[in-house]
Amino acid sequence: MKVIYNKYFPFGKFLATNICGVIFCRSDKGRLTEVDKNHEYIHSLQQREMLYVGFLLWYSIEWLYRAVKERSFMRAYYNLYFEREAYRMERDLEYRRKRKPFGWWHLFVKKGTLLHEVGSFISDIADFIRKDFRPLKYLYAFLLVILIIIGQLRFHIYDIIIAPSYDDGTSMLRLPMVYIAMYFLVLIPTLAMHHELWRLRRWQAWLLPMVLLTIDGMGQGFDTYRRWAAEYAAWHKDKFYMQLVGSFLFRSVFIVLSLCVFRWLVDGRFGLYGLRRSAKYLRVYALIYVMLLPMFLAVSFTPQFLNYYPKMDIAYCDGALGWSNAGLIGLFELCYANDFLGVESMFRGAMVIGLARWLGARTVLPMAIAYMCIHLGKPDLELCSSVIGGYTLGILAYRTRHLWGGIIIHLGIAMFFELVGIIRLLN
After folding, report:
1. 149-184, pLDDT tens digit by residue?
2. Which residue, 304, 267, 320, 318, is CA-closest to 421?
3. In the prediction, which pLDDT does 32 show?
4. pTM of the model
5. pLDDT tens digits, residue range 189-239?
6. What is the distance of C-alpha 167 from the center of its chain?
7. What is the chain's Cα-based Rg?
8. β-strand partners of 22
9. How much of the chain exceeds pLDDT 70, in percent?
């Protein structure tokens, strides 16, 4: 722990402040005692377990909240959870050695409250990243993500590699190959950096990810429904609508049934991984969704959003199948929503919860990169955010062993965008 003495910082009445493990101390107010150093070391532990950025955000927001509530910045300061732990334990010079992770949380936040659940939620993510973190591994994954983004934004790799496969009939072969390549391009270096290449001696570590990504790729690449719609449609609006519904219906049904059979063959149980009774963090997921709504609304005004949502253009489908617009929209949105069940069951269910038996926590990051690849061709913001969202939801699926968080947030975002898009078209 490095201590820097100076005459100017921190300001006001404070003797010292801790920024990312570096202590800035006012030299005109004296030297730090052992008790003072222990106080600051406790802050270093708090920052480390909150991954520094999380600590800064929590500290700032809580201080602002308490300052408004108590009408005093200093009273708010002394009542902060981080400061209460540091002041309470600063005289116990052995505390930092026996301290449990997130000690401030266990000491002062009442169990069963939403606030306690939020803290547990953050601590689960931070604890996973801390254990999984390897600088070279994350740098490698970051550079790979940047290359994918540049490849799409600059060189339009979706239009060059994937889109033509639907025309030449190779989509059910090409998409699985792309996803499998990207998954193992991350998995093998990841295992090597954790000294866990021994996991690849198990045939399941090779075969099962390939089977799962083949299922998803074939589900996305399947387009025979277009020919069926052309044969049975009475006129062009029927054809357009049937093809649109089929693009989500056949993929989701194929993936869900395939995953149920996959689990029966591998696990001896027919069903989907992660669809279990569990309420862990459900309130937090709902809170996150509500907090993100203003950002979603802002995104809905961008040109790319207007060109992409809603998925069903009412003008092209008006009167299709002899149905009302309400019926057409209702059926389509039901199929569209069901597609998200297939996506979550595949990527957070089978590829995280299912493969954890053989690959442990190492399957999360490769899953996130493969998940990003299924967003090629979608709006730029959606592509860029998919890897962060996929990785975070993967961590939570791994820790909670259920999919409800991904379903709530993922489906909630999609339905919000659809609703906003439909309202604009109708108006």
Report:
1. 999 988 889 988 888 888 888 888 999 999 999 999
2. 304
3. 84
4. 0.79
5. 999 999 999 999 999 999 999 999 999 999 888 877 777 776 776 677 887
6. 33
7. 26
8. 2, 19
9. 98
Residue with tokens 């006129």: 235
Q: Give the CA count within 13 Å in the CB-facing half-sphere of 286.
A: 7
Instruction: At 75, list the tokens.
Output: 């009273």
Q: Alpha-carbon distance 345 to 353, whole Å?
A: 10
Condensed to tens digits (0 to 9), the pLDDT of residues 96-116 reads 888 877 788 777 777 778 878
Tokens of 300: 């809905």
Task: In whole angstroms, give the CA distance from residue 198 to residue 192.
Answer: 9
Residue 224 to residue 360: CA distance in whole angstroms = 37
326, two tokens: 């309400």
Token pair, residue 110, equals 């009442």
Report the alpha-carbon angle 255-172-311, nearest 5. Answer: 65
| Helix, strand or coil, per DSSP, at residue 112 | coil
Helix-then-strand count for the chain, H and E: 23, 3
Q: Angle 282-299/412-426 helices, nearest 10 degrees?
A: 40
Bridge partner residues of 16 (DSSP): 25
Question: Residue 128 phi/psi, 5° resolution?
Answer: -65, -50
Block residue for tokens 């190779």: 170
Determine contact, residues 182/373, Cβ cutoff 8 Å: yes
How many angstroms separate the most distant Cα atoms in the chain? 88
State phi, psi for 25 to the nearest 5 degrees: -125, 140
Cα 369 from Cα 210, distance rounded (Å): 15
Contacts of 418 (CB under 8 A, 6+ apart): 309, 310, 311, 333, 336
Contacts for 144 with CB less than 8 Å, ≥ 6 apart: 185, 186, 369
What was the pLDDT predicted at 234? 66
Dist CA 16 CA 39 (whole Å): 10
- Partners of 207 in the β-ladder: none
Give the H or E element holding residue 25.
strand 22-26
Q: Tell me which of 117-126, 308-317, 377-386 is least confident.
A: 308-317
The confidence score (pLDDT) of residue 69 equals: 86
Contact 206, 200 (CB under 8 A): yes
Cβ contact 328:320 at 8 Å: yes
Inter-CA distances, 285 with 94, 205, 302, 396, Å:
37, 31, 26, 11
